[in-house]
């Protein structure tokens, strides 16, 4: 019997069991219709620039702050398999290689069909209230298999107790006050931050994840593998830095 498909970013993706069998890093080979899809929406929206006031505000989390010439903004869903694959194949390397030259901003866009996306966003935002947003952001993606998928790796998980236990473990590893994390995860302040990100994402035309913008323009790749998309993204950054 064929493996059940799971939905990520508004598209059907192969069973997570397949991804974990070969490793999510090999998710780069997964294509649909010959074109790698970004953010569940393969229709380019043109070259119009989204106002910076929509994409970034003073409270937005900056993973890197290496320069003001180039700003990358990613709207993401922590449980989204495509987001995890982008992190492992593209954005983690960009953070390492370009972090001293660009500002990289991440914003929440948890999708309704990912039941653990909102608790994960709450954990990241709560960690940010203790000054450790970037550390939790990395922990959620670096340890994706520990909370986002079922233990047998067959599908996305909906086990919130297991996920929260994982978040607690990450919190301890990065030196957070776990009780305070729990309080902040349930707070109105965190809820408002996540909702504000979603509202801005909708204003920017975001319909799925991951969706990235470079200096206000949506990045819409044409590559068929993550290696190709990664090179296209780096080329775009290099062009912006050379201006």
Structure description:
By secondary structure, the protein is an alpha+beta fold. It has a single domain (6-241), classed as Glutaredoxin (3-Layer(aba) Sandwich), CATH 3.40.30.10. Helix content is 43%, strand content 12%. The chain contains nine helices and seven strands, in the order ββααββαβαααααββα. The chain has helices at 16-22, 52-55, 81-98, 117-128, 133-142, 160-173, 178-185, 188-203, 226-241, and strands spanning 6-8, 11-13, 61-65, 71-76, 103-108, 211-214, 217-218. The strands form two sheets. The chain has a five-stranded mixed beta sheet, sandwiched between helices. α4 packs antiparallel against α5, α4 (117-128) packs parallel to α6 (160-173) and α4 (117-128) packs across α7. The termini are far apart.
Element layout with pairings:
Layout: E1 6-8, E2 11-13, H1 16-22, H2 52-55, E3 61-65, E4 71-76, H3 81-98, E5 103-108, H4 117-128, H5 133-142, H6 160-173, H7 178-185, H8 188-203, E6 211-214, E7 217-218, H9 226-241
Parallel strand pairs: 4-5
Antiparallel strand pairs: 1-2, 3-5, 4-6, 6-7
Helix pairs in contact: 3-9, 4-5, 4-6, 4-7, 4-8
